[in-house]
Specification:
about 90 residues; Immunoglobulin-like; five-stranded mixed sheet; three-stranded antiparallel sheet
């Protein structure tokens, strides 16, 4: 998706188990964001809000000084010794 620099972007993810049922990871649910130059703009932090079982979101307040281009969002769910990672892309104009 495309957003304008300076907008607050809602980054959301749904965690499911192997049967496709929404579930919460027992250990942690984190997010990290890097800019088009691979600079970290959000270090790995706990997802901001749990909306319901398995549904999480994080509000990222981009700034007008953020670089234009594609940002990589890394969602990481840790459940004991199991780690699941999902990537997404945000475009800032």
């Amino acid at each position: 998706m495309s957003y304008y620099r300076g907008e607050t972007i809602i980054c959301s993810v749904v965690v499911t188990n192997s049967s496709g049922v929404d579930t919460d990871p027992n250990t942690s649910m984190t997010i990290a964001i890097t800019d088009p130059n691979k600079n970290v703009v959000v270090a790995e932090v706990t997802m901001g809000t749990k909306d319901s079982t398995g549904h999480y979101h994080y509000d990222w307040a981009s700034t007008t000084s953020n670089t234009k281009g594609n940002y990589t969002v890394l969602y990481k769910a840790v459940d004991g010794t199991r780690t699941s990672i999902t990537n997404a892309t945000i475009e800032l104009e």
